[in-house]
Amino acid sequence: MAPTDNSLMLLLAALMITTLVVAHVRSFLEWRTRTRGRPLPPGPRPWPIIGNLFDLPRFKPWHKCLAFTEKYGSVVYLQVLGKPIIIVGDPDVANELLNRRSANTADRPRNPVVELSGQEVNFAVLPYGEWWRRHRRAFWHHFNPGVISRYLSIQREGAHKFLASVLTSPYGMKTNIYFTFQSVILKIVYGIDVVDASDSRLAIASAALECISQATPGHFAVELLPFLRHVPAWFPGAGFQKELAMSKIANYRLKNDLFHEIKVAFDRGEHRPCVAANMLVRAQESTLSFDEEEVIKHICVIAVEGSADTTGHTLEAFCLAMALYPNVQKKAQAELDQVVGPDRLPDHTDSNSLVYINAIVKEALRWHVVLPQGIPHRTIEDDELNGYFIPRGTTVMANVWAFLHDPQAYENPFDFFPERFIRDGGIDPNVRDPTDFMFGFGRRICPGRHFAIPSLFINIASLLHVFDISLPLDDNGHPISIEYQESHGLTRSGHIHMYCYIFDFLTERTLL
């Protein structure tokens, strides 16, 4: 090689090194300017390039997140492939960051699973902005506290149907629970009368949620490596494509099939009293644009999907708790006997007098946390928290499960003990209320929470007033040991050992 060639190569190498050094110095100075010298929150030491990829908890992550909190403090920082994540393990910090500073934490992380599974119809996971606001306003109009009273009679009728289905088929309890809540919400949203659990429309929402319910952060590799969305389903390791595609088809059906039914009825002048029809009436005042029709469809979808989560899974867990804690059941039934009596069923109007039943509702929500880490938030701008720098675009995960199993707030937190919420014959306002956390935070708090609580109340009160729930017996007449076990997922049902047998001894009560 000629001397001039060597000189040229050295010059190019020097320029490359200089460019890299300048870029590094510039990046460093920009970072120093952004952080103003404030450190990132503590957390496990990251690896080069991949960061804390191997530290990211994937299976029942709320347990490892609690371990992180115990080791590093109330705010734990992870960085996965360049994406910042913080885990909030203290309820006061969560309140500060996600409630008081909701204007900066109301966004959602961008997740390819949302689009691949068809969950963009769910405004709970939409990015913060005007499109989300349109959905939120429309939903709130039909589910704010001022209008919930118009739905109580449908909830009560659904509870009565639930009792009848339990009486005829106690072994199909999970199906009975799902049928109850879905038939009620389908009536309210679409004006549909579902006769029995064989109705094909009931299966649509279940299929739509089946995949997304497993999507804890990092569950699907495509969440961390978005380019994998372009990998064909037949490629080894790309089986997630089939799962997500099935979920997308189910979401498409849920969005369009049921709405088409009500739209056809509406166009021929048949006005069903339901949310969808009321929204169509309001939209009829002006020409119904494509965007407006999409919003109506999405509102109906999230109402149907949401009813299957908090209420259905919580009622499952409640039934298990009654079998495991018979003394709680007896106290609740004694209150029902005194307040309601033997000649009728409980009603929403009995709520103020049924203090222990209300305490059971709170304890059921606390004991079995359906959304143990909620839905992740995302910061919009740089922020500071307790002296730590929080970069914009940081995913924020609140460990709601840990908040509601904190032994400092709840003595013996793994026991089912409704008395913890009662003081001087009423609900104690000084005890940490599970509904302050498990429905989300700030501007992204679940707008359907005012519908969910009375739904749980009427079903729990009605079930306890009519039936006894006890553990099954073995061949020798001894109770079979059953234990509570958490399931994995974004939303959790109450998985237990030998679950199907728990209703062997769900029997009618004798009301004297």
UniProtKB/TrEMBL annotation:
Annotated binding of heme, by residue: 446
Keyword annotations from UniProtKB, A to Z: Heme, Iron, Membrane, Metal-binding, Monooxygenase, Oxidoreductase, Signal, Transmembrane, Transmembrane helix
Matches recorded under InterPro entries: Cyt_P450, Cyt_P450_CS, Cyt_P450_E_grp-I, Cyt_P450_sf, Cytochrome_P450_fung
Organism: Trametes cubensis
Pathway: Secondary metabolite biosynthesis
GO molecular function: heme binding; iron ion binding; monooxygenase activity; oxidoreductase activity, acting on paired donors, with incorporation or reduction of molecular oxygen
Cofactors that this protein relies on: heme
Gene3D superfamilies: Cytochrome P450
Principal location: membrane
Signal peptide annotation: 1-23
Localization annotation: Membrane
GO CC term, one of those recorded: membrane
The protein's name: Cytochrome P450
Source organism, top-level taxon: Eukaryota
Homology family: Belongs to the cytochrome P450 family.
Membrane topology value: Single-pass membrane protein
